[in-house]
Structure formats: structure tokens, C-alpha cells
Amino acid sequence: MAARPAIIEPDRIGYDESSAQPAGSSRAPSNVSVAQSFGTQVRNAQMRAQNRPASLHRVHTLRPRPPQIPLWLRQLVLLQRGSSIAALTMGGLALLAYSWSVHSQRAWTQAYTQLSDLRRDEPQLMRTNEVLKEHLAQQAEAKSSGLIEPTAANILYLEPEALRPDRVLPPAEPPAPLEAPLGY
Amino acid sequence: MARTLPPQVSQRRRLTQPARRPNPRPTGILQLRLPARWQAQLDTRRIRLLLTWSILVLALSGLGLRLLALQLFEGKELAAMAKAQQTVGLSDFIPRRPVVDRAGVVLAVDESVYMLYVHPSMLSKPLDEASQLLSKALNLPEAEVLKLLRSADTGVKLADGISENTASQVRDLYLDGLDFIPHPQRFYPQNDLFGSIVGYVNGEGKGQAGLELSQEDQLTRPGKAMRVRRMGDGGIIPTDLPAGFLHQDDLKLELTLDRRIQRATRIALDRQIQNFGAKRGTAIVMDAADGSLVALVVSPTYDPNTFYDYDVELFRNWAVTDLYEPGSTFKPINVAIALEAGVLNPGEYIYDAGQLIISEHVVQNHDFNSAGGRGSISIPEILQVSSNIGMVGIVRKLDPGNYHGWLEKLGLGKTVATDLPSVPTSQLKTLEEFKTSPIEPATAAFGQGLSLTPLQLAQLHASLANGGKLVSPHVVKGLVDSTGQYKWRPELPEPRPVFSQKNAQAVVEMMETVVSQGSGKTAAIPGYRIAGKTGTAQKAENGVYVAGARITSFVGIVPVEAPRYVIIAVVDEPQGEDAYGSTVAAPIVKEIMQTLVSTMGIQPSQPVAIDHTGEALAVDLHGNPITADAHSGEHGVD
């Protein structure tokens, strides 16, 4: 096959450009396989063209048919693509989940430390607050503080005033219609 | 598509096509036929490759063997070691819940203090320098610290009870080799003010007295010490934490007490105890509506922060645990019984002979020697002058069995239902004794021959104040969370009706005359309607009256128009001739009421003109002119 000279240039019959070879050049096995893969129709056409008398030497343009890929293969290809996308997404998600788990653990530890600090501080603050109050109370007890105990005698009771009825305003008089145009 | 390509295009493509090289034949290394020079080079390479390969294989198999050994043979021990290193007991202690008063003032709170252990061999500084720094931070003598540090290489206990502040100061010295072991310590900010009620906890954190003992279940936070796993940096691994790890409730034990009134009560009581050189005293302020205690003071008392410095005797709250003969303060209760039993009219007159002989026992009024018999007197007058014979006359209208039944109905001879610990059973003579010996109901008429606690007496008077219901005296309001929701409330017995509203109020109004005209004048506050009753009794010990030893008391109810608060003051063994319920106990109750009315916002019953000292001018509470004589009237006694 490689030795057979090509009469019709592949370009002319609409070969794919990538597989086109200049006439007369020796074909690499790979090129042959590519040419083969286009089916026998092309070759038949070439044969016919060779054997045809000159008057009938008309070149027919043959359009390549789309390659016949079996359904199962197409489905497999689709599956492959789908699964690649899924794998990529899942890889991304796994990375996210991992980073989140590391981050949340750290954040949790920080928050927990804060919580334990607060729990430790709470009774401290309670204590300090009450000690201060107690100290003030003891100071107030001392005669020299100048404070006196609340007794009935120094407490004022104010009677809450009864609610006054709402004051009814006289209805506002409608503004007199303008007799002169507003403007100077 | 064009049939032919222009020549230039073909030309260009030809030029751009790379030159094709023959594909190398796929052959193995060993099959290559190469020049001898190359062959020699390849041999060395092969040897090197083999060498490297064998080293790697050896290393890998070594690792494999080690892995095998670690996993199969040492695995269990190592796992145990790792677990021991990683897990730590996290909750070494769970703090007890705080105790707060009705306004949220903290009365008891757990704080963590530290025990400091030093490992001298691990200290980052020389011993003398370290001891100098430590002694300064801990406020200990330097020589002593140095001696301790030299005593051992590790585990020297240097100090205990170090506060959080001091501990962080010591930590900031960065000495290494220091171990702080935290443990809880109960702190009572008001020192001895609430000691007799709240109680104290021992070194193991267990309640030993007061509410700390009786409310142990409420004060202890549930939960056990948890073990958690830690990471290398000390952080906790949050994934396998035990359930409820973070949950620590914010509940507090709320009491019905009020710190301000408690303080005023303590001041008033202590002053009179000091004035009369009394042995001890107690004062109770009770909200009659539900039996909640607003203040309960016992003096002398103890500071629960340093309970170990006090006599064990002081840990007992004798207002709750000790029985005494109430004496004349029990008379209004007897009047209420007679009214309720239907044998007495409020307007009735009773004949007071001043003295009676009942089955060979002489019973007389306290003032028989000076005043003699009073003749026919009204019931309010009996209370005003505290006539014993008048009371005997009232009680004699009742059948002894019936009277005994009434006393039992009021809870005498039983235990008061309360949340304070160690409540005794009050004492009452048996029904048999009441029936066979007429002296028993006669002495019970003026509050002798029966004994109860000051708390129970407050409960009985509360039943007069609240319209006849026997309420349970209590101090615990419940467990409250930080949003003010009650998560637990004590189950108290339902108030038990014993008197009718009408009779209870009638007795309170009779008691009002005791303060306005009788022996309780010393408790009067201008503008307020106050009911009261004095009591002075000889002290009985083991059934024998102790000569010269008295127990004085006063019961006050305020305000009479809508009775709400019952105040009781009992002073034990006041010294001096002038020591009576009216002189010792009534001023205490008056002072407490002064604070009570101003704190609780109890308005005066009617406005009165007062001078700057708070004494009424011109008119008394009934609008009558006050003369100098009436105002400074003598202290009534009973």
C-alpha cells in the first residue's frame, strides 16, 4: 500500500488536511492507518478513477461521512466525561471539606479557650463586685460616713396623679380662602 | 472545498512540516546492541541501578518489618501509652451553683484557687533567685521558700489557696517547673451576714450547715469529671467529645432574703444585744402572704469563709433549731383560737382577778404585786397589759380537749415544714395532761408549758396577718437561670386555713392597740398602723425556771390595714432590771420596720406631721393631739 502512488491528491477528495501528504512522498505507516480508517469507499473511488477511460475521467467529490461510532462507545465517552467532571468536583469539595475541618477545629479550640477563660473570669467578677458592694455597705454603716439609714421619716411618698382627660382642642378654623394672588 | 490547493500553499506546508525521524524500535535494555564503549558504560549503570534498587528494597522491607513489629507486637501498649498521654481529665471540678438573694446579690459563689507545687530541679533559674521571685509574688518569707525548694528535687508543695490573680502573677515569672492544681473554694462576700442561713461547705466541697447542707441537691451541678483527647498543641479534639461536654447550666439558687433588710436587722439586733449584754438574739422578718423569709439574723454568728475559726455551737441556727417558751407573744394566738371556736366575742369583757389558784398552783399577773386585780377588762386591754389571768379566763371558755385539738391543728407538737435544716418537733403537753390537769391549759393560755422555735412563732403570727392561713416558712425561691426563668421551685405544702379572715383581722387590730396604747409603744412609728405583742418569760432549763434569766421577745405586724410582714425579735438573757420585751425586743422590731417600710415602699396609713427626728408632731395616728406625757409614756411590760 505504501508503495502505491497516489494519483489523486488527498486534498482534492476532501481529505483531512492533517493527513494530507504531498504526492510521491513515502507514506509513514501511521498515515496509512489514518487513510485506512476512512473506509474503503475512498479507495474504491481511486481505483475507479484509475481504470476509467480518459473521457470518463471525471473527478467526483466525495464527502466524508461522519465516522460511525457505536452507541456503547459514545455512551462510554459520555460516562467518562461525566465522571471526570464529577471526580474533579468531588476532589474540590474534598479539599474544601478538609480545609474546613482543619479551620473549624482551630476555630473551635480558640472559642473553647475563650469560653474557659470567661468561665474562670465570671466568678472572679462576681466576687470582686460583691466585695466592693460589701465594702461600700460597711463604709456606709460607719457613723462617720455621714449617711443615714432610710426610715419612714425620711422617705417621701408621692401620690401618682390621676390620669388627666385628653384636652380637646377647638376645631381649627379653615383658613380663609385667598382673595389675592400670592405674590408680590 | 477547492479541488486543488494553490502551489504556494503546498509549498509552505512542505516547509513547515518537521523532518521525520525514524521511530526507535521498542526493545528492552538487555537486548540493545550498542558499541563496546557504550556497553561498558551501561554495565556500570546497571550495577549502580541494581545497588540503588537493592538499597531501596532493603530499606522498604526494613520499614515493613518495623511496621509489622509496631502494629502486631507493640501495638496495644503503644496505643495505651498514646491514649494516656493525649487524654486529660478536663472537668477536674464542677463549681457549685451560686446562691443569690431576691435582688440577685451573690451570697455564695465558687471560685477556683490553686495549690502550687514546685519541681526545683526543673526551674529555669537558680534556686536563690527563684525563691526570691516566688516569695515576692506569693508574699511568703524568702528563707522559708528557699528551705522548701532545697528540701526535694520534685513535688514541693509551696502554697495553697492561691487566688487566680496571684497564680497568673506567678505564671508570668516564667520559672518552669511549676504546677498549679486548681480546686474550688466557696466564697461568701458578705462574710458573716448570711452565715447562719447559707451555711458553709467543707474542704471537699460538701455542704455542712444551713442551706449548703439542706439544698445540696440543688446546689450541686450534675455531671461527672470528663476525659477528653488533646492535640499536640494542647487544644481539645472536638470530634469525640462526650455528650453534654460544653453544657454548664447558669442556674443560681435564689433566696427570698433581702440583703438590705438583713443588714438593717443585724445592726438593730446587735445594738440591743450589746446594750443589754445579752447572751444571744434572733430576728425574723417574714412575708406573711407566702411564708417567705425576708431576713433571718442570729447573733452571735460566724463567718463561713473561715468557719474553722469558730465554735461548732455557732453553726446551729437557733431561730430554727431551738425551742423556747413563747410566753406572752403566744397570747394573740389563743385569742384567735377562742374567737374561731366561737366561745368569745371580740367585744366581750373578762374578769381579771389578778391572781388565781388552779389545783394548788398560784397563777398571777406579772404586775399583780403592784397593780392587783383589774376587774372586768376588754380583750384588747388583756393584750395591752398582757394579763395572764384574763387569758386564763378566755381559754377556760374552751373545753381542754377542744383547746388541745386547736393547738395541734396549729402545728404544735409537730415539725414545721421548712427548707431550713435541723428543724425540731415543737413541744405540747399531751391531750391526757390537758384533760386531767387544769393547770396545763391555764399555763398554755399565756404561752408557757409549750415550746416552739422562733420560726414557728413567726409562722403562727403570719396566719393572723394573712387572713388565717398557715404558710410554710421558707427561704428558697428556686433555681433561676440567667434569663430569670425558674427551672425548679421548692414544693411547699399548700397554705392551710386555720382562722377566718374576720377573726384574724380582729386579733391584728387588737394587737394594734398594744402598740398604740399598751406595752408595745416602743415599736410605734408615726403614721403607720402597727400591731404588736411583747413577751417576757422566765427561762426554763430542764423543766426548772432559772432565776434572773429572761427571754424577751416582741412580735410586730405591719401594716394593720393590709397586714403583710411579721417581724419577730427574741433576745436571750438580757441583763439589767429594765430588760423586758418592750425595752429590749420592741426597739429592734421598730428599727427593722423603719427599714422595711422604706425599702418595700409601704406607705403610711395616714399622713402625720413629723419633726426632723421622725417623731410625730401635734397629732398621733388617730389624729389626736399628742401631749409630752403621752409621747414619752413609760415602757409597758407584761
Observed structural traits:
heterodimer, A: 184 residues, mainly alpha, 2 domains, elongated, disordered N terminus, B: 638 residues, Penicillin-binding protein 2a (Domain 2), Beta-lactamase, 7-stranded mixed sheet, 5-stranded antiparallel sheet, 22 helices, 20 strands, disordered C terminus
Overview of this structure, please?
The complex is a heterodimer of chains A (184) and B (638). Chain A is built from 3 helices and no strands. By secondary structure, chain A is an all-alpha fold. Chain A is elongated. Chain A starts with 28 loop residues before the first helix and ends in a 43-residue tail after the last helix. Chain B contains 22 helices and 20 strands. In chain B, the strands form 6 sheets. In chain B, strands 2, 3, 4, 5, 7, 15 and 16 form a 7-stranded mixed beta sheet that branches. In chain B, helix 10 runs antiparallel to helix 21 and helix 12 packs antiparallel against helix 20. The longest helix of chain B has 38 residues. Chains A and B meet through helix 3 of A and helix 1, strand 3, helix 10 and helix 21 of B.
Which helices and strands appear, and what pairs or packs with what?
The complex is a heterodimer of chains A (184) and B (638).
Chain A: H1 29-37, H2 40-51, H3 71-141
Chain B: H1 7-16, H2 36-73, H3 75-86, E1 87-89, E2 99-100, E3 106-118, H4 127-138, H5 142-151, E4 156-162, H6 164-171, E5 178-187, H7 195-198, H8 210-214, H9 216-219, E6 227-229, E7 252-255, H10 259-275, E8 280-287, E9 292-299, H11 318-321, H12 331-340, E10 349-352, E11 355-358, E12 361-364, H13 368-371, E13 375-378, H14 379-385, H15 388-395, H16 400-409, H17 431-436, H18 439-445, H19 454-465, E14 469-470, E15 476-480, E16 486-488, E17 496-497, H20 501-516, E18 531-541, E19 544-558, E20 565-572, H21 581-600, H22 628-631
Parallel strand pairs in B: 2-7
Antiparallel strand pairs in B: 1-6, 2-3, 3-4, 3-5, 7-15, 8-9, 8-20, 10-13, 11-12, 14-17, 15-16, 18-19, 19-20
Helix pairs in contact in B: 4-5, 10-21, 12-20, 14-20, 15-18
